[in-house]
Design goal:
The protein has 368 residues and is of the alpha+beta class. The chain has helices spanning 8-20, 22-38, 45-55, 62-68, 73-82, 91-96, 121-131, 137-147, 174-180, 186-217, 224-235, 240-246, 265-295, 307-315, 321-343, 348-367; strands spanning 60-61, 102-103, 111-113, 116-120, 150-151, 158-159, 162-165, 169-172. 22% of the residues are buried.
Length: 368
């Protein structure tokens, strides 16, 4: 069987397997976006000429960008989004700068030689890690190594998904580029991932805040086993601490309310604050489950679609997948904002003082 180049007929499963690995996926997709969305597949000679004129400047001013890339607003927007301009974070920030503001491309940047886009490894890593902060340099380097030579599943051929040019530059293989190009708007698909990832990062920050506050009340309440029992009690609309006692959980004295005067103001304040935080933790768990459902469209053990199919569905909004994801994220965002607005008003000092006051109350009550 003559099979040299990557093809969907023979290699679709292999490509999907490679794209299932998040480290290799982002290397491939960002190289694709650089070629397709930034440089328009090198089809516009004027764009390439304008970019190369910018590169030879000793200092690149905003005015140079506007002058040489006049009519190429999309290039500027994608460059900013990818982080090609190191000291510009958004289009709005770019627009607000004066024309004599110096734009920094870094010591190394993307170049074009012999009709080939060369992307330095450092530049590519920074672009990806700007969006996906969990990517480590070690995993990135391993992904580069693996993608340079991938064993074919149906022949003895070794496929190069990317090529290393010189010591430190990389480019996407033409075969893979044109195969990916058939599946639609990859930039849109990756933007959905970026949105979800950014959402997840903010979500995890809120989870940590809530856990830190609960831990001040009692570290036991943040253990996995106890949290499961608390969540079960909330779902069944039971008294949390009575349910924990029924489950034979050894509670600290301040969590045993049997002999405490529940009409006391300090008890009401203390228990109300703790129960609010525990309910927030439960609600956050439900939000986490919904976020995981969204991520399951394209990743994880319960993945609904191979990544190539996910790109297709997003590109053509099949079965309103984009609307569904966006609507879910909007709803979850509102829920998180509601919780966050309350949690951000709390401080560790305030919670610690509340617990100290309550502990004093327990001691004085027992003395009586």
């Amino acid at each position: 069987m003559e099979h040299k180049k990557l093809s969907l007929e023979y290699d679709k499963t292999l490509i999907n397997k490679i794209l299932d690995d998040i480290n290799m996926r982002y290397v491939i997709l960002f190289l694709y976006i650089i070629r397709n969305d930034l440089f328009e597949d090198l089809k516009d000679d004027k764009l390439i000429e304008s970019y190369e004129r910018i590169l030879i400047l000793d200092d690149i001013f905003k005015g140079n960008i506007i002058k040489f890339l006049s009519g190429y607003q999309n290039f500027v927007e994608v460059a900013i989004d990818l982080g090609l301009f190191k000291n510009i974070r958004s289009v709005r920030e770019f627009e607000q700068k004066e024309d004599d503001f110096i734009i920094k491309l870094g010591e190394e940047t993307i170049t074009i030689e012999k009709n080939t886009i060369l992307v330095p490894a450092d530049t590519l890593f920074l672009m990806i890690s700007k969006k996906f902060k969990f990517l480590t340099r070690r995993n990135f380097n391993l992904a580069l190594t693996r993608l340079k030579g991938v064993r074919c599943e149906v022949s003895s051929e070794i496929h190069s998904f990317i090529y290393q040019i010189g010591e430190n530059d990389y480019t996407l293989s033409d075969d893979l580029y044109y195969l990916l190009d058939q599946f639609g708007n990859i930039y849109q698909a990756i933007k959905i991932e970026i949105t979800i990832e950014g959402f997840y990062q903010r979500f995890e920050e809120l989870v940590k805040k809530i856990n830190d506050f609960i831990e001040i009340f009692d570290p036991l309440l943040t253990s996995k086993e106890v949290i499961k029992k608390i969540n079960k009690a909330i779902e069944e609309n039971k008294d949390i601490f009575e349910a924990l006692k029924d489950e034979k959980v050894k509670l600290s004295d301040k969590l045993k309310s049997g002999k405490i005067d529940k009409s006391a103001q300090i008890y009401k304040q203390w228990s109300s604050q703790l129960l609010q935080l525990l309910n927030f933790h439960y609600n956050i768990k439900k939000i986490d489950e919904k976020l995981l459902e969204i991520k399951n469209y394209y990743s994880g053990k319960k993945k609904k679609f191979p990544y190539l199919e996910f790109i297709e569905k997003v590109s053509f909004n099949e079965k309103n997948i984009v609307n569904e994801i966006q609507d879910t994220l909007i709803t979850l965002r509102e829920e998180i904002i509601e919780i966050n607005n309350i949690v951000t008003k709390l401080t560790k000092k305030e919670i610690k003082l509340l617990n100290l006051d309550y502990e004093r109350f327990i001691i004085t009550s027992s003395d009586d």
